[in-house]
Write a structure and sequence with these properties.
Layout lengths: L12 H13 L19 H28 L1 E5 L14 E5 L13 E5 L13 H12 L9 E8 L4 E4 L7 E2 L2 E2 L19 E4 L4 E5 L23 E2 L3 E10 L5 E2 L4 H4 L8
Antiparallel strand pairs: 1-2, 2-11, 3-4, 3-11, 4-9, 5-6, 5-8, 6-7, 9-10, 11-12
Length: about 270
């Protein structure tokens, strides 16, 4: 009887060898270091459209928010002239609160932005129709600040006030009370500039406005053609809002000074 156990492979050796051969016949799927896997997906073109769609949504939301803020809260404007120096200088970007006078009362001394009244003559700017449409649209949503069809001045007289320039000390009087205008530039007098002298009673629903830079401001004085304050005054309905801050340039960022003490003792107008 012959013993064949020495010629047979150990138990399990055959299956192990087969597995080893199968493994050696199968290519290694693991990528070499730094190699991009063969199964990696390349960016699909539609991914770009998804990005553009999301970007468009963000832009629309931003414009909508800007429009709402501009319409109901705050609107930016730029200062095109030196008529309000040194309070505001040419190139300043200002923020205008829409709460005044829409939801809160005007006060003497407030600096306001208003649409140029019809009695002050036509708008001198005349851009082309396409440029005008684009600019108006950007101003409408608050992307661009308001332009030259808006003016900025300081309220001196409210409806019913008797405003006179000037007394023997070169002071404006409001309801017979002489005011000391602390906001004027150094060396400036209340009666500096063209058409400086006036004696008017502010009509109902209107205000009398002057620039701080009296020598270089086309304000209520200049447009007071009838001499009675009717032409030179500004309808309250034309006022966009009160200037509350300077937003640009960086060196001038800050709130606008208030001068309530200048008018604190002005009496109410006589009936």
């Amino acid at each position: 009887m012959t013993d064949d156990s020495r010629n047979r492979p150990p138990s399990g050796a055959s299956s192990d060898a087969s597995a080893h051969r199968a493994a050696s016949d199968t290519p290694d799927d693991r990528p070499a270091p730094g190699e991009v896997p063969a199964t990696a997906e390349h960016p699909r073109p539609h991914h770009r459209w998804v990005f553009l769609r999301e970007l468009a949504i963000v832009v629309v939301i931003a414009l909508a928010l800007s429009f709402l803020v501009k319409t109901f809260l705050v609107q930016p404007f730029s200062i095109p002239s030196p008529s309000m120096e040194n309070t505001l200088i040419t190139g300043d970007r200002i923020l205008v609160s829409k709460f005044t006078p829409q939801h809160s009362a005007l006060h003497r001394g407030d600096v306001v932005v208003f649409s140029k009244p019809n009695t002050w003559g036509p708008d001198e700017s005349n851009p082309g129709p396409v440029k005008r449409i684009v600019k108006d649209a950007l101003i409408g949503v608050g992307v661009l600040p308001g332009g030259p069809d808006h003016l900025v001045k300081r309220v001196i007289g409210l409806p019913g006030d008797h405003v006179v320039c000037c007394n023997s000390k070169d002071q404006i009087t409001v309801n017979e009370y002489a005011i000391t205008e602390k906001y004027l530039p150094p060396g400036e007098k209340s009666d500096d500039g063209p058409d400086a002298r006036f004696d008017i009673t502010v009509p109902a629903g209107k205000v009398w406005v002057l620039g701080d830079n009296r020598a270089d401001s086309a304000d209520s004085r200049v447009h007071n053609l009838d001499g009675k304050g009717v032409d030179g005054t500004v309808p309250i309905s034309d006022i966009t809002g009160q200037v509350v801050a300077i937003a640009w340039p960086i060196s001038r960022i800050g709130g606008l000074p208030t001068y309530g003490s200048v008018f604190a003792d002005v009496p109410k107008p006589r009936p």
